[in-house]
Specification:
Layout: H1 2-33, H2 37-60, E1 72-78, H3 83-103, E2 106-114, E3 120-128, H4 132-136, E4 141-148, E5 157-168, E6 183-188, E7 204-209, E8 214-218, H5 224-255, E9 268-271, E10 277-280, E11 286-287, H6 290-294, H7 299-309
Parallel strand pairs: 4-9
Antiparallel strand pairs: 1-3, 1-5, 2-3, 4-5, 6-7, 7-8, 9-10, 10-11
Helix pairs in contact: 1-2
Length: 315
């Protein structure tokens, strides 16, 4: 039903813009039959508005992948560097939460591992909304931060890394075949801040997918059953993402070029010192408004990447 509603909305907006084009054409004929400067100004204004809306709708055609219309699961992992990288991971989490809020998407925290002093070691978020994955897949990769460290007594410049993984939400159990003997489940006590927050029972869950070696942990919920459900959701999303990456690698290989997305190949750099600049290394899209980007204004980066993937020119 969600997919059907999305298709109906797409058809409706194309029909609407088709009607507006027809009306503008009729109005133009009348304006040409009886020359009137004010009428021509109105026609030009209507045509400009139609062009803007048409450009926006045409951009949405980029979301033609098999999973692009789905919700997304996004996982953020702090890199090496202790507190500095863990703080950077938390900054990225806030950035994506703010972006999701602006898009009208609902978010839910599936797993959360706090940092030792500040920040987070890792977090897994579910972003619910049409085309959430289609947009957020542009964020998959290593993100690099350069700044004067607030955790360094000498206030020296530090470079931190965090890995962002983006996976499509699984919509049906039939999409992923997991045999009864393919998954091993281990339970353990959730880590906490101590005191009353320490779990006295083993509610945290670790799932290991034996055929692929994928390991998923979830300790955010108070119930072992809830943690297992969340962990299974993440596992199935990882399996779908793995299959999608295999297809993408094969298509890229057939095109004659391939670049591994590893830790040495960061997709974006956020520089807060000695100057302000956020630059995407895949598209060269950049901005000096680092504060706005870290507050969730990443639409320009997402659009430029998606357009580059289909050979279009970024607006």
């Amino acid at each position: 039903m969600r997919r059907l509603n999305g298709l109906v909305a797409d058809v409706d907006q194309w029909r609407t813009i088709g009607g507006r084009i027809a009306e503008a054409g009729e109005y133009l004929e009348l304006a040409e039959a009886e020359p009137d400067d004010s009428a021509m100004v109105d026609v030009e204004r209507d045509v400009a508005a139609i062009e803007d809306d048409l450009g926006r709708i045409e951009f949405e055609l980029i979301f033609s992948g098999p999973y692009d219309g789905r919700s997304a699961i996004i996982a953020i992992h702090a890199g090496a560097g202790g507190t500095e990288s863990q703080d950077w991971a938390e900054m990225l989490m806030r950035m994506y939460l703010r972006w999701s809020e602006r898009q009208g998407y609902k978010t839910e925290m599936l797993d959360f591992s706090p940092g030792e002093e500040a920040g987070i070691k890792s977090v897994t978020l579910e972003v619910v909304g049409i085309r959430a994955y289609g947009q957020l897949k542009a964020e998959h990769g290593v993100h690099r931060l350069v700044r004067l460290s607030p955790y360094d007594a000498a206030h020296r410049r530090h470079t931190s890394f965090a890995l962002v993984e983006v996976m499509p939400e699984v919509e049906a159990a039939a999409e992923v075949q997991i045999g009864p003997d393919d998954v091993r489940m281990d339970v353990f006590r959730s880590s906490g801040a101590g005191g009353q927050n320490v779990q006295k029972t083993s509610t945290a869950v670790r799932l290991t997918h034996i055929p692929t070696g994928i390991v998923v942990t979830c300790q955010n919920e108070r119930s072992q059953i809830q943690n297992r459900e969340s962990a299974m959701k993440i596992l199935m999303a990882r399996l779908i993402a793995m299959e999608a990456e295999k297809r993408d690698r094969e298509q890229t290989r057939l095109k004659g070029e391939h670049k591994e997305a590893g830790w040495g190949n960061q997709i974006r750099s956020y520089v807060l010192h000695p100057y302000n600049m956020v630059k995407d290394h895949r598209t060269d899209f950049e901005t000096s408004n680092t504060g706005a980007v870290l507050d969730g204004e990443i639409g320009g980066f997402i659009e430029s990447y998606l357009r580059s993937r289909v050979g279009a020119t970024a607006a």
